[in-house]
Design brief:
Largest sheet: 9 strands, mixed
Strand content: 15-25%
Number of strands: 31
Structural class: alpha/beta
Radius of gyration: 24 Å
Number of helices: 10
Shape: elongated
Length: 469
């Protein structure tokens, strides 16, 4: 079911700004000059505008190095299908909409065609308010900058001229491929109440292993005093009872003026926001605070994590991500597909997307994506079927031995603990069951890989009849 876009009313009260920024001494004269110039005098209005006018979101939908390959072979991470009807980036965009943040910039670069198309078609202004938008900013080159974006900080720096279009007071920087629900209004409220320059959303615990966005050392006032790329073990450093340690979520709320001065003046060569900009801001004596988050959050660092997130959305529990939450709905592109057709199928504990054609098959504990065609006597268990981008007509692709194999899953096939990417052509009497219990294997030339024991069939792959994997 597709949820119509409708913005909730603003929940954040208008707060007075009693902004007092302390100048912290630094051994570097340039840092002293930066702190003095940026904090004296305050340049902010006496009252904040409503959040839908004062905060703009910057969403990154991709990265140069993906841990979800081969699902990212032809698409960015944010464009990966999940839970039958959605893309990963829908979760983050929906957080913004549900938090009354309706000015959203999506910066894309790597394998971005599918993501750009989805964002442009799904969020074309309907339901985003009079001045709301989701604007895609694709990587570009200019006579002055003839290279591609070198990282999150470099991308924001080169897009500041676009981001300056509206008189917002803060930028909310978000990874576009994480699965969680957060009311960003509470983050904004905490940021303004503490009069911080930067606020970082942090897990109310330390993830093992580190999720990759760094470890934050936080004092009793939730001020971040130290940023590190890895967790320091007790054996390496004495215990410090006056500070707490948390994992960063890679979510940053930054005052607009501070963002501009950091990227343009103070560290104009920085490429990465988390590992370069944040430590520099702390060193400069800026007030960088932590906002503690204790809800469900998954950054999907592996095929196994992606598979598990899909399995959790099937289960009737509060442990995973809830795609059916009425209070915080998930939005996506309306596709106007016909209802799923089921012919004498047995379906247990599964999610079935729109427009599927299911014949006499058995499906258990499985996510079945849109437009999936499943033949007679097929058995599918504990799997993720991503579906198809279109309905196939007379155009039949032929495999190497000349047998026509249509898009979908052929008769008498059995699939267990697998991820079948879009537009795959699975022949008849195929066994995708990891018969040899292989944990890791690369068979891209044959149309599949194995990761953590999960068989992943590549997008548009052709698996001939009677194949056993």
């Amino acid at each position: 079911m597709v949820v119509a876009l409708q913005l909730p009313s603003s929940k954040i009260p208008i707060l007075e700004i009693g902004r007092h920024l302390s100048n912290v001494s630094s051994s570097s004269s340039s840092r002293k000059r930066f702190v003095s110039n940026s904090h004296q005098p305050p340049q902010y209005p006496t009252l904040f505008s409503p959040i839908n006018q004062s905060v703009a979101a910057i969403v990154f939908g991709d990265g140069s190095e993906s841990r979800l390959y081969p699902l990212t072979k032809r698409r960015s991470e944010g464009a990966i299908p999940i839970a039958a009807n959605y893309r990963l980036i829908d979760a983050v965009i929906s957080n913004c909409i549900n938090s009354n943040i309706n000015r959203i910039y999506a910066i894309t670069q790597f394998n971005s065609t599918s993501l750009n198309s989805h964002l442009s078609r799904a969020y074309n202004g309907i339901g985003l308010g009079k001045e709301g938008f989701v604007q895609v900013i694709a990587a570009y080159q200019t006579p002055e900058d003839q290279g591609w974006f070198q990282g999150t900080a470099d991308a924001i720096r080169r897009c500041l001229w676009v981001l300056d279009e509206y008189p917002v007071t803060e930028f909310l920087v978000l990874p576009g491929h994480h699965l969680y629900k957060m009311d960003y209004q509470k983050l904004v409220e905490a940021h303004r109440s503490s009069q911080s320059d930067i606020t970082i959303a942090a897990l109310n615990c330390v993830r093992e292993p580190d999720p990759g966005f760094g470890i934050l050392k936080v004092d009793s006032q939730d001020r971040i005093v130290e940023f590190s790329l890895r967790l320091v073990k007790n054996s390496e450093k004495p215990n410090d009872s006056t500070h707490s340690t948390f994992s960063s979520m890679g979510i940053y709320l930054v005052n607009k003026k501070i963002m501009t001065e950091l990227l343009d003046s103070y560290i104009p060569e920085a490429n990465d926001f988390g590992t370069e900009v944040i430590p520099a801001a702390i060193s400069a004596g800026m007030k960088v605070s932590a906002y503690r988050f204790d809800g469900y959050w998954e950054d999907l660092p592996s095929i196994s994590a992606f598979y598990q997130a899909n399995m959790e959305c099937i289960q009737r529990s509060n442990m995973g991500y809830n795609f059916s939450d009425k209070e915080s709905p998930v939005y996506t592109m309306p596709r106007y597909l016909p209802p799923t057709t089921i012919s004498d199928a047995v379906i247990t504990d599964s999610i079935i997307g729109d427009g599927c054609i299911l014949n006499r098959c058995k499906i258990k504990n499985t996510v079945v994506g849109m437009r999936t065609r499943i033949g007679d006597r097929v058995i599918i268990e504990d799997s993720v079927i991503m579906g198809s981008d279109f309905y196939q007509r007379d155009c039949i692709q032929k495999n190497g031995i000349g047998i026509s194999i249509p898009i979908g899953i052929g008769d008498d096939t059995r699939i267990r603990k697998a991820v079948i990417d879009k537009n795959a052509r699975i022949g008849r009497n195929v066994m995708i069951i990891n018969k040899e219990n292989v944990q890791e294997g690369n068979r891209e030339d044959n149309g599949y890989i194995i990761s953590s024991g999960i068989v992943v069939i590549l997008q548009s792959a052709v698996i001939p009849d009677s194949t056993i994997l």
